[in-house]
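re the bet — no i am not wrong, look at it urself. input seq straight from the record:
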Amino acid sequence: MVTALTVPAGAAQRFVPLPTWMDGEAEKEESLSDQNDEHEKRRKKKESIIRKTTVAYGIVELLKRSKKLDDEEIRVDNFLISVSKNVNPSQRSWADIDSVGMLSSGMWLMIEEPSYLNAMLGGEACYDRISGRFLAVEMKSAPQENVGKPAEAKAAPKNGLNDYHMAGMNALAAVAEESNRCHLFARLLYELYAHEPFPDDAASTKEPAKKRLRSYNEYLMLPPEVASDEGVFEIDTIPFQIPYIVRMQKLGIPASICLMTQNLLEYALRGDGRQSDDAYESLGVVCQDLHLLLLDPNRFLFDHDNQNIDNMKILYREGKLYGRHKEETLITEAFCRISPGKSEAFFVSGFSGSGKSMLVNCLSDKVNAVGGYVIKHKFDVLCLCPLSGVMSAFNKLCLMIKGGDRPVIAKKLMEEFGAGVGLLIRLLPNVSALFPELVSSATKVEAGDVMNARSVSFTLLRFMRAVTSPVMLFLDDIQWADSTALDVIHTILSDKLNSCMFFVGTYRDDEVQVDHDIFNLMRELEISHVHTTKLSLAGLDQSDLNTMISDALCLYPRICKSLTEIVFQKTKGNPFFVLEFMQSLLSRGLLRYNSLQKRWVWNEDVIRGEEITENVLHLLSSKMNGLSDNVQTLLRVMACYGVKIHALVIGYLSETKEYSGIRNGLEEALEGGFIVKDEEECFQFVHDKVHEAAYNLISISERKQFHYHLGKVLYSSCYGKDVALTIYLIASQINHGKEWILRDDDLRIGIAELNMKAGKKALDGCDHETAYSYLCAALSLLPKDHWENHYELSLRLNFLTSSAANSCCQYDVAEQILRRGLTNARCLDDQLPSYLLLSQILQAQGKVNDVYDTCSAILTELGESIPESYTLCKSARMLAETLKMYEELGDKWLKGEKTDDKTLHTTLQFYNVIVLASLFCKSFSMVVYFTCKAVQLSLHRGLCERTPLTLLQFTSIVTKDDNAVLCYRIAKNAMSLRERFDVEAQIPELYYNFYGRIAWRFEPFQAGIEHLRRGFEAGLSSGHADMGLYCLLHTIKFVLFSSPSLKSTLKEIDYYLHLLKTYKSVVTRNYLLIFRETVSLLIDSGEATSIQEKAVFGDLNDPGNKPREAFFHHSAIRCYWSGHTERCRYFSEKSMNLTGQGGQPTAYIVKFLFGLNCLDLLRNNKQVNKSREGIRVAIAAMEDAATNSEWNFMNKLRLLEAEQLTLTRHHWRAINKYDASIESAKKAGFIHEQGLACEKAGFYFKNLDRNNKKALEYFKQACECYKEWGSSVKVDSIQKEIDSLNVKEGSK
């Protein structure tokens, strides 16, 4: 009985019997004969096939869900099609099939496509491609009788069969029923696609197998040579073996449907000798295949008629990642975790060809989708410039920055670098594209350039802080990177401020040892608390490999399983090996395209029997050996340069006689899949193994000579041209032939000059390791008499090499090379640059006495007089003379033109260096002498680039309370000279001297903080780390004196401590630990904020021990805030005695707290005379300081005055002074001193014992201030006073 489907009221669908719908499809196809547009005709036909396949999919889903069906129920007239009336014109034309129903069972299924996929797959890009459908089915109506119900219990059989036998019989019955369904569904498929009845004898014949084959010959009218005498077909000419399947193919039905129908019939013919290995096992598998046809019809459903049958190619999915879903999820989640100040690292290891790069590349689209940037670099074994590769990746980022981000990033870069942005442009020339109107060129590289790998790392870090979007840096094959390049990664990732980078590094785990720099980087990142993920890739499993092969051959996965098993055994699932193995099968004819069945075919037994290597390198080498000479030569040449080569180099070489044919080999190499051309006009190998195989085309014994000859040819070809792009390539190739170069005296000088140019270029680009390598190569090529016969070359090369060694922190080597050059230099002018560099090298090693001796000797040579010693009286007179001279010449002199006196510039440079050295090894009088001499020299001989620093050194040394105004004016004038001179390289020293040592007397502490931070960062970026670290210490000092938050100060100190792990500066680290311990004590007495590492102060009785001053300073500060008056007095006196001539801000802070402490002692009648003298000294110091800077010192003066007035019982005057101090501290932003003034006022009123309410008011203000400051110690202390007063008030 046929049950009608109930159509929901108001439904937009209309139900059509399947035969009627098929007639309509046939009419549409017949109407296509009048269509003139072939593209449109082909497209309409494909759409019809998809509609029919959608119907077939719905029907087989219904059959799967039906338990028992009669043969009559699996016929076309038992099915209905629901077609939507409301099809959106923009929707794909085959999306109108909504559901399929079965009349007999009353079931119908909705066929749906998820909306998100519909949006993704909708819209066609061209006529020849049809988007697929990811369909899902939903049961909308249950079967009406016993369909789907559990089977009722049956009585035990009476024939004596046990359960085991019954189960076997039931299984056989189920197989028979499934076989019958497959047969009936095959009939239905035939009628659905062919639109003609399926003949009753279509799947049965009584003819013997061989006779049947001959009948196929006659039917298809094949030429006699196709079949042998016995009627056995060659593997690539076997047609479909059931006549009516051949009929389907003749009607233009796709081979995929023909193959499905044949395999269904083969299953139905199980047991009569006609079943093949490809026969279906169930309708469930059929359903999977139909779903696959709809999902990707262009690959699996339609015939590939657009390919040349005689040269069919395996259609690999480009960019498709197989079997890595978990890994893809892992790397995606890692990227999603990054945020400003929270970067991550992701390491992927595995054998070559395991798909490491493809896994990473799959993330690129996701990064771009969220507005991020992806930058990449690939290292290779022949790469000589690892750091340059990393910098080139960041340089590309500058050009990738989107239009909307450009002005924002340009502004941030200017805020970050200021006038020092030229230093960044030196590293990343493309930065100038962000603001060409502001910057025209990079910073000039001065003699004795002191930039190094650490300064490069820090500069790139500062650049990354300005990039507003997340950046993924992918470095491939980092097993070829060096520690210098990897240190850059560590520096950026460990930044806790604003940089936001996701680093991915891939490496071959079979090519690295446990001591490789990669593992050191991992350890350093873990120590720096950078979230790090490590992933190892193995080969694909058989299931994923089968999917890959199925996609490539455009065949159902079930059919490919036998081939997959063989491929897996040979390749272990290595994706790249799989690709090459498949290509090998194709090239050897073991994998063929059957033009009759329109599918790939193979013979498993033949493939298993063949001796096919299990080494991918051997496969590639064998393949390359069969290439033409031009292609082989091209591959050899490219292999010598690494994984890629610029097209310009190919052009240069092709112009030569020796390599004229390589351009002709390009097309064949591209066509053969050995190389590709990228967007940078470079040709690169498609894989490392291809590069390795190409390099193996050159025998090991011939490689040196091949490299050398290649370099010479390129050198000759580029002679007289701009070789900026090729100089590294030329030098690196020629250097392989050192043994031949040394035999030719004329050639060796030319090659030495070439290497020197390459080294200079690397130095200019801050790749110091590479520069050192080329420059050492140049030195080794010079003949023994080079100083006599090639003096200028020797002098310049010697200096550049020592400069590179210095930048690589090889100080001993640099010093050795310099001294050799100084010995051979012919005059003082030739020696001066080397002596200046030598002094910098000695200073970097802390050899201040050697620095002093060197500079002293050179200044003497330059005509300056250097006394053995100098008295305080003489230095005072000389200071007065210098100040008078400045006041007489100052204004006119400052407006003068810049002098061309190079000797003045050099002399001042040495004076600048000797001033720093004398601070550590000579008396203060000598320091004053040198600064005064330098200023007088400049006043006499004119202005130059060294004048601003000379003036600032002078004022920072000699400024005292009585000359502070004049010295500040001199310093301000010096800073104004920055606009006239290129002093970018001096910024750390300028900022340290002005903001750290002078400006605080007149300007707010807070004003100097940002400039000192910039000086610190500029110092680390430019290689002047010592001056940068001085700026850092003064930054923290001023932050502590003015900090609105102790916790933010502690966080900043911890950041700098973390950063200094890279710089290994023990002294600076020790000072930072001193600051940290003070802040920690102020927060919570160190209970929760202290760390295990502590400062080391050394011998406190040693006068030369600089940390002892900091010890006494900070001990005084800590004791005061902790309420230890006696200890505070002791440490304050020690501190003030050590301060001596230095009028630095710490001394004033100590004097201020010492004065308050003396008032407390005097109030308790302790050490009365000493205390009164201490109060007088403190107030006098604050009066002098407040005269110039009310902002920094007026609140301190008013608080001392208020406390003093309380002792003399001037009540109202004291109250006014307290309030004035509170207001002044509030205005200046000194929240801690505002709290201190409130606390002192509160105690005053409390001690009066007559105005507890007023005391309570002040204490509450103090408590709020200390809370904001972040000192729980002070909050707890004041809270006790508040509680005590509340109790008193409550008892009244």
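see?? The chain has 56 helices and 15 strands. told u. also The mean pLDDT is 85. so pay up
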